[in-house]
Structure formats: structure tokens, C-alpha cells
Amino acid sequence: MTTMVRAAALTNYFEVAQHLGLNPHQQLRQVGLSASLLENPEQRLPTSAVATLLEESAQAANCPNFGLRMAESRQLSDFGAISLLLSHQPSLRNALDTIVQYRHLLNESLALYVDEVGKTVILREEIVTDPPVPIRQGIELAIGVLFRMCSALLGAHWRPLTVNFTHDAPPELQVHRRLFGCKLEFGSEFNGIVCQAADLDKPNPLADPAMAKYAQRFVESLPGATEQSALADVRKAIYLLLPMGRATIEQISQSLGMNVRTLQRRLEDSGVTFSDLINDVRKDLVLRYMENPRYSLSRIADLLGYSVASSFTRWFTSQFGMAPAAWRRERQIKLEE
């Protein structure tokens, strides 16, 4: 199942690409896209093609913060049809709930989970592509856009506690510091933003309940507004909850607001089992983790839900034909050639 994203995800791609000396038309052609497809912000594009475009553009421009540069100028209006609904939510918590509810209208590959831990909250975010492709730039763009939305509702002076990325830090952090203005954590166990829990409930002074009701009715009238894929939602929930040790069918069904039997029935209708999806997500995540030298094999095993390292080694060998340590050595040799 190919996941899709609105063409608005590439808002200001041309400006950033040209500023860095690239030919955006050429870059688009290389991934099977064209400039005409970007003229309508609501046009649906394959997420894997958009993610690959950002990765190849960053490499061609020798600019490891390409996606973040795109995020710097994003506005609430770039969220499209639900932007009015977002801007009139009474609090950030309500706005995040709105994004979760209508994320399929924004980006079918977007996974967002609000994880409250005492007085802090983690806004966990993932991009799930099918087929899996490198997504470093896509993740930085998504987190940058999420930060910009939070700032729009909480005020320009708002700063989170930390911004976290599972990938390594780039050689230069000027753009990251300019946009976020807070502590940055790379090689983290999750992608997302950590802030004070109290920030979620600060009132939005610009919220208008009447306008919110009007915007709600408008969004509900859109084609596909109430249509969501159970298969896609389960996959995204696994991406978010697996590193937390909470990717059980009970936890996933609860996070999606249904009972276990209903979830199993919907997956059966799609021709897959819950264990199939767990295995698919593990295969994608393990490659991300294995390519990060800061992640030990024991840490990777833990992030993938294996309490015993030998179980992880057996699983990895069955999937990739060699033990994880041997895979890493071979990978390192290829990078040095």
C-alpha cells in the first residue's frame, strides 16, 4: 500500500533548491515527479518519492539540513483545509488531537503520538513510507513543521525543552539552533519534541469557538474526511510504540480506540496479521538503528522489543542472512571503499 502526502509538503522546495544552486526541475524528474504536480497543494504524491527527493537534493547540494531549511518558513496555512480548524483550537492539546484525527488528510505517512510523562510531554513523530526509504530530511522537515505549529499557537517566544532526532548530528548546527533555540539531542531513542506538559493547555488567545465549529463542518464535508485505513494506522502506531516497549496488540488497539477483536478482524480483512506488521516495522527500524554507530547492538535489541540479545541476533540473522555484528562490519567496509 503506497502512502501519499499532499503536494503542500514541498512548499518552498523550489526556493530552497535554487538558493543552494540546484536545478529543482531536474531533481524532481529524477524521482518521477514534475513541477506541474506541485501547482495544486492538495495533489497527492507518493511519500517515498517525496522523501527520496529531499534526500537526493540534500546530497546534491551537500546540505545535510535541507529539510529543516524548508521548515523554517512554514505557516499554519500550509496545513491546507484544516489550517483554519487548527488556528481556532482552544489549546495546543486540542490542535494536536485535531492533527491526529485528520492526519490522513495531511500526510498518510505521518505518525504522531502525545506521550505525557509527569510534568513533561513528548510529541513523538515518525514518517512511515511504503516502500521504506531513507527519511532523515523528511523527519527534520516534519519536526520543524510541528515546531512551527506549536510556536504559532503558543507564541514566538515559546521554546521546548529539547528537540530529539534518532539520526546523528550534522557537521554544522546553525540552522537547527536558529529554528529551535533549545537543547538538541541526536542519536535519541525517538524523533520529536519534549516540552512542559502545561504548554499543552495554555489557552490560544486567537481561538474563536464559532469559527472552530464552522471549520469543523467544512473539514467533515471534505471527501475522505472520515476514511482512515486501519492497516496504515496500526503500522504507524507500531513505529511509535515499539521503541517504548508498548507495541502489544492490546496497547495498539487501545491507542486506536478499539478493542482487540475489532483490530484483529480489520487486519484479517486486509490480509495481514499483527505479527506480520510487527516484523515489517522491525525490518525497517533495525536498518535505521544499525546504520547509527552510536547505537549498541544491545540497545537496538531493546528498541525493537527484544529483552534477550540472543533472540534479536536470531531474528536479524533470519531476516538478513548474517549476524548483526557481521552486517555492521560489512557495511563499514563498503563505506570505506
UniProtKB/TrEMBL annotation:
The keyword Transcription regulation applies. Keywords: DNA-binding, Transcription, Transcription regulation. InterPro entries: AraC-type_N, Homeodomain-like_sf, HTH_AraC. The keyword Nucleotidyltransferase does not apply. Residues 232-330 form the HTH araC/xylS-type domain. SUPFAM superfamilies: Homeodomain-like. PANTHER family: HTH-TYPE TRANSCRIPTIONAL REGULATOR GADX. This is AraC family transcriptional regulator. It comes from Metapseudomonas boanensis.
